[in-house]
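can u pls check wat happens w/ NAP
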Amino acid sequence: MKFEGKKVLVTGGSRGIGRAIVEAFAREGAEVAFVYHSNEQAAQDVVSSLQDQGFDKVSAHQCDVSCQQQVDELVEKLVEQWEGIDILVNNAGIVKDGLLATMDGDSWSKVISTNLDSVFYFCRAVTRPMMSQRYGRVINMSSVAAEFPNQGQANYAASKGGIQGLTRCMATELGRRGVTVNAVAPGFIETDMTEAVRNAAEKEIKKQIPCRRLGKPEDIAQAVLFLASDESGYITGQILAVDGGLTLGGI
Ligand code: NAP
């Protein structure tokens, strides 16, 4: 198994893309801790379904990723328990769409704090342990919306663009310590987050995608596993679009 013995932390692992990432790492032998926010039932489902399949090194942790103190406490606890940390996947995210002209401050700051501040908190918290062990893999979840935002996504596009800048800068700082930092930019993926858009316009969306299908959470999980693997050790500071070709001609 490719990730046997590796200690992996995944945010937003209870549903959608994050769940697929947790499952993929667990099946490859990793010890996985994942974060959820409020949906405890979904988090327990992930743990118990993996246990039923014989993968029992997975644990769920309630934590609001936008809360610096909660993030620091969780990472400190895991690093102590694991005596280090090998892989961090910053995946948790939300949308709160609305046209800029009428967007309220709360919709702006909630999305920025959940999607972007959180990535800063987690990245900062793992930096010292990863530097001192001279090994680490950080994968941040951006979005095609960073470069090709839809109307009504100023907050979301700003948060995902910010993640890309943070990713590149962190990569320049940590490369010499054996730590790589990359981002994945998914297109349209079948999760709760895109349910309303899919219900309204799935046919139209598929026509814009060269691969002629929506992405599955597993498509993203496999890209994350590649960027977390030893084989990708010479790739850092990159943003990998996983979108079925959606952005080749712009959207
Ligand atoms: P999702 O199905 O809505 O799941 C979101 C996950 O994030 C859940 O596990 C949720 O926990 C967690 N979360 C949300 N707010 C949190 C908070 N404050 N603290 C801790 N955990 C929190 O989303 P998804 O579609 O899988 O998206 C995952 C990531 O991919 C996001 O960053 C998203 O922006 C990005 N992305 C998605 C798409 C797409 O098409 N789906 C496209 C591009 C990028 P609970 O279960 O407790 O709520």
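The chain has one domain: 7-249.
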